[in-house]
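FAQ

Q: What does a record look like?
A: Structure on top, sequence underneath. For example:
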């Protein structure tokens, strides 16, 4: 048999890294898009205790894919804009729930940083 050819019944081994990544992917992640308002529950360790902290805000951007998928969520806390980036498939994330779907015509919503109050909200997407 010449080099580079494969027999019909030969089993091709999967890439070990991709196999490990597939095992670590979460299955409970909802459909998220920029403009959506999400509530992210994060496990926070304080000393010996562990508690769940909820961060609710608008998804500003989504980056990466697969195991490296990350979302940046922005909210206004005490009049100051706070942005946090979460790795979607990280074990520290307890759950992600979508509160409402917003209308966004671009992938990154950096223009929200310049807006305050009601102008910082996005229209809700209509369900058809």
């Amino acid at each position: 048999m010449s080099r580079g050819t494969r027999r019909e019944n030969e089993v091709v081994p999967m890439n070990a890294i991709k196999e490990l990544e597939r095992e670590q992917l979460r299955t409970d992640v909802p459909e998220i898009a920029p403009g959506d308002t999400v509530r992210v529950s994060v496990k926070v360790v304080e000393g010996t205790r562990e508690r769940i902290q909820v961060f609710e805000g608008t998804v500003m951007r989504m980056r990466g894919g697969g195991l490296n998928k990350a979302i940046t969520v922005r909210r206004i806390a005490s009049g100051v804009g706070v942005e946090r980036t979460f790795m979607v498939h990280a074990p520290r994330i307890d759950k992600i729930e979508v509160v409402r779907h917003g209308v966004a015509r671009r992938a990154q919503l950096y223009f929200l940083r310049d807006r305050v109050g009601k102008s910082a909200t996005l229209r809700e997407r209509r369900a058809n």
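Q: Is there anything notable about this one?
A: The chain has a mean pLDDT of 87.
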